């Protein structure tokens, strides 16, 4: 999930959410894995302005989903990490294959997350889920189910059926989103401005992701 994919996702969601038809949406991966995280090349993250642009785009996508008047369901298969997990948490509901795994290992390499706030801001969010994700550990499907990261087991057809079913019933928005809060959004940009991008261990992160790809 690179910058171009995020931009295209934003464009597609903008088009869907602006036509007034409010049809249910299912977000899925183009490949076998929902997302290996934010797939940036080592030469891309040069400064804080770039990180701010990523965060701005991510929060823009979040706001589109939050304000949409129909269900947005994520379908997860394989590793759902980094930006993929953030997108899953931002969605209203999520359906995952039993082989799916979830986590934010990026933060172990000092790559910031728009879902997990820095230590000084974590009082805005309560619960064990944030604490668990903040460790950077990759959770199994069952662990993710217990934490409410994923709602149920299923395939792509199940995700599509769920979106249609929810749309045909009284759909009460759980917008919030489940983990992201307005207070964090407002304060997060300032935090990104203070990050020393030289501390982000991109080469190690890329090596880690490559090992995951080989085991996927």
Question: Key terms for this structure?
Answer:
216 residues, alpha/beta, 2-enoyl-CoA Hydratase, Chain A, domain 1, 3-stranded parallel sheet, 8 helices, 45% helix
Structure description:
The protein has 8 helices and 7 strands; from the N terminus they run H-E-E-H-E-E-H-E-E-H-H-E-H-H-H. The chain is of the alpha/beta class. Helix 1 (3-18) packs parallel to helix 2 and helix 2 runs antiparallel to helix 7. The chain starts with a helix and ends with a helix. The chain has one domain (3-16, 23-205): 2-enoyl-CoA Hydratase, Chain A, domain 1. The strands form 2 sheets. A 4-stranded parallel beta sheet has the order 1-3-5-7, with helices on both faces. It is 45% helix and 10% strand.
* CATH architecture classification: Alpha-Beta Complex
Sequence of secondary-structure elements:
HEEHEEHEEHHEHHH
Query: Would you count the extended β strands for me?
Result: 7
Would you tell me which CATH topology applies? Answer: 2-enoyl-CoA Hydratase, Chain A, domain 1
Number of helices: 8
């Amino acid at each position: 999930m690179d910058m171009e994919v995020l931009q295209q996702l934003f464009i597609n969601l903008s088009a869907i959410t602006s036509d007034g038809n409010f049809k249910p949406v299912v977000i899925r991966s183009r490949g076998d894995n929902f997302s290996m995280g934010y797939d940036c090349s080592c030469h891309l993250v040069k400064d804080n302005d770039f990180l701010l642009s990523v965060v701005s785009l991510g929060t823009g996508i979040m706001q589109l989903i939050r304000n949409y008047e129909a269900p947005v369901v994520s379908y997860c298969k394989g590793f759902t990490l980094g930006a993929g997990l953030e997108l899953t948490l931002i969605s209203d509901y999520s359906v995952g294959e039993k082989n799916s795994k979830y986590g934010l290992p990026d933060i172990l390499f000092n790559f910031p997350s728009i879902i997990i706030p820095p230590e000084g801001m974590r009082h805005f969010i309560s619960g064990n889920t944030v604490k668990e994700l903040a460790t950077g550990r990759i959770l199994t499907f069952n662990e993710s189910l217990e934490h409410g990261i994923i709602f149920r087991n299923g395939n792509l057809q199940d995700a599509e059926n769920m979106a249609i079913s929810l749309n045909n019933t009284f759909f009460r928005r759980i917008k919030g989103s489940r983990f992201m809060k307005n207070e964090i959004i407002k304060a997060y940009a300032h935090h990104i401005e203070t990050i020393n991008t030289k501390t982000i261990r991109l080469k190690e992160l890329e090596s880690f992701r490559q090992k995951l790809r080989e085991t996927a």
